[in-house]
Amino acid sequence: MKNLQRFREFVARFTALVDAHGADEPRIFADGEPLLRELILHDDWLPDECAVPSPESYRQYLLHCDPLERFSVVSFVWGPGQRTPIHDHTVWGMVGVMRGAERCEEYADPLRGESLACRGTHLVEPGGIDRVSPTVGDVHVVSNALADRPSVSIHVYGANIGAVRRHVFDPASGAPRDFVSGYHNAVVPNFWDRADDVRRSIAA
Ligand code: FE2
User: Fold this and answer.
1) 140 CA to middle of ligand 1, Å?
2) Cα 132 to ligand 1 centre (Å)
3) By C-alpha distance, which of 94, 93, 92, 62 is closest to 77?
4) pLDDT for 43-73, tens place per residue?
5) What number does CATH give the domain 4-188?
6) How far is 127 from 43, CA to CA, in rounded Å?
7) For residue 25, what are the contacts with CB-CB under 8 A and spacing of at least 6?
8) How far, in Å, from the CA of 21 to the mean position of ligand 1?
9) Of 75, 93, 193, 204, whose CA is between 20 and 30 Å from 32?
10) Angstrom distance (rounded) from CA 180 to CA 178
11) 185 alpha carbon to ligand 1 midpoint, in Å?
């Protein structure tokens, strides 16, 4: 039985944070990161269907989208050896690793006509959180750091990220190409069935 209450509480707290400080990116990072860390340090709530890898490519499952599209929460599932292209986000984002490990390669803002040089690589392990945005650094490559098993990370973005027009970049020329990621699930998991809680309260 998954601990769905944990995710409901995360969504409630993050919604309150965005209500209060939605336009204040430093505040969202500062106050949102502890919420995300608490979520990823307790790996007892993610529905199994949102942790299924694919041999084709990494998977991005939508877990929750704010009704006003001020933020969204997704699970990323990486099979062994899988990686993203060089890409941006155009909005703030926090990437928290929950299972396995991810490798992040950072890039400076691409200049058209110039090849892209990786300016640093780091490993993110369970409980670790990376930040991205046009302000703090928005271009990277993320890959599964493990060769023999999947990794899973939980991401929060300042928009309905699957519907954001963003870019992938050609490493040789820096040329951008528009892309919209979408989601790999057509149905969002039900974190909202609290009937058993209510029945227990009635019986008590
Ligand atoms: Fe990314």
Assistant:
1) 6
2) 7
3) 62
4) 999 999 999 999 999 999 999 999 999 999 9
5) 2.60.120.10
6) 10
7) 92, 133, 135, 158
8) 23
9) 193
10) 7
11) 18
| Cα–Cα distance for residue pair 87/110, rounded to 1 Å | 10
| Gap between the Cα atoms of 98 and 127, Å rounded | 6
Distance 141 CA to ligand 1 centre (A): 7
Instruction: Check: CB of residue 160 under 8 Å from CB of residue 108.
Output: no
Helical (H) or strand (E) element with 14: helix 4-21
Q: Is the pTM of the predicted complex or chain greater than 0.85? A: yes
d(CA 132, CA 118) in angstroms, rounded, equals 16
| pLDDT given at position 204 | 79
Token pair of 158 as six digits: 């300042």
CA 126 to chain centre: 14
Instruction: State the distance from the centre of ligand 1 to the C-alpha of 76, rounded, in angstroms.
Output: 10
Residues of the chain with pLDDT under 70: none
Report d(CA 136, CA 80) in Å as an integer: 29
Q: Over the chain, what is the mean pLDDT?
A: 95
Q: How close is the Cα of 68 to the center of ligand 1, in Å?
A: 22
**CA distance linking residue 107 with residue 116, whole number of Å:** 7
